[in-house]
Amino acid sequence: MIITTRVAELVTATGRYELSLMQDVARSEYGLEIIYGDTDSLFLNNTSKELLADFQNRFSKERKIELEIKNNYQKLLVGEGKKHYIGYENGKLDPVGFEGGKSDRPEYFHLVYSQLLDDIFKHEIDPIPNVRKAFADLEANNIDKNLLKISKVLSQNPEEYNSQSCQAAEIGKALGRKQGDLIEYYSSNKKITGKSWTLNPADIDIAHYKALLWNTISEILEIAGHSVDELAEEFDIKSKPKRIIKSNSIGSLKRNNAGGESA
After folding, report:
1. In a 3-state reduction of DSSP, which class is residue 253?
2. Three-state SS for 124?
3. What is the DSSP letter of 97?
4. What is the pLDDT of residues 173-186, one digit of tens each?
5. Topology of domain 2-79+247-255, per CATH?
6. Is residue 255 very low, low, confident or very high in pLDDT (cuts 50, 70, 90)?
7. How far apart are CA 224 and CA 14, in angstroms?
């Protein structure tokens, strides 16, 4: 056990050292801007095919490290979190890590999220009018209720959850579901209905849905340069967005895993 742990530490340390060296060389010797990096990748700006080819050849010869140019984004929005970005390359979006991509979000949130990305990246228009309409329709309860359902798959049988008061356990029991089954429900106001979920669309907690929708899109709006504080006040939202960084045109250089696809 001790030997295994030490080996793992050395592998991690070596990876960090090599990535740090790549960053230093890219910045000081090639004049490349380091936008973002994690354990297996660098996002570089001010690149060219010639510079990247030379950079690859250098590390292949001197460090025995094979690098792959994975993406060349025309536009890239980078969030604060690890592997948290949206790239746009040749008409295709590559969103990674943002709230709108999560499968347990209501379908309405996915539609608003997709429209927001299309407005910013593909249409290059102001997304705020469509965002305002999305919140106005939600506020007016003018949404197909099927689009507001929250869907989750039970990871275990309801009686096996550590906390029997969690939503998944409660709803699973109420619906007679078991591990692997899909449960669908709406969020409700516990002070009004006695519980935080409901099967009755008439009991939907619109204020809670507004807050969830805001959490789904606010970070992207801030990255795109919009005043999220003013918008949150306009939509009567109390939550604060995460801080972000921004860039517009970045190439991505990613290291290959040994014998496998790029990470």
Report:
1. strand
2. coil
3. S
4. 999 999 999 999 99
5. Palm domain of DNA polymerase (3.90.1600)
6. very low
7. 36
Distance, CA of 221 to CA of 100 (rounded, Å): 12
d(CA 129, CA 144): 20
Please name which of 244, 199, 253, 251 lies closest in space to residue 224, comparing C-alpha atoms: 244
Let me know: does 244 contact 221? Beta carbons within 8 Å.
no
Q: Are 235 and 134 in contact (CB under 8 A)?
A: no
Task: Give the residue among 144, 139, 140, 132 at the shortest CA–CA distance from 106.
Answer: 144
pTM for the structure as a whole: 0.79
**Residue 24 exposure: Cα atoms within 13 Å on the Cβ side:** 6
Spatial CA neighbour of 253 closest among 34, 83, 78, 4: 34
Which residues does 143 contact at the CB level (< 8 Å), separation at least 6?
Answer: 108, 137
- Residue 151 β-bridge partners: 184
List of residues 6+ apart from 207 with CB closer than 8 A: 189
Strands (E) located in the chain: 33-37, 41-45, 67-72, 75-78, 85-89, 92-96, 150-153, 182-187, 197-198, 251-255
3 state DSSP class of 89: strand
Domain boundaries defined on the chain:
2-79+247-255, 98-141+207-234, 152-201
Three-state secondary structure call for residue 100: helix
Q: Which long-range contacts (CB under 8 A, 24 or more apart) does 112-121 make?
A: 112/213, 112/216, 112/217, 113/216, 113/217, 113/220, 116/217, 116/220, 116/221, 117/86, 117/93, 117/220, 120/77, 120/220, 120/224, 121/75, 121/86, 121/88, 121/93
> Quick one: pLDDT at residue 150?
94
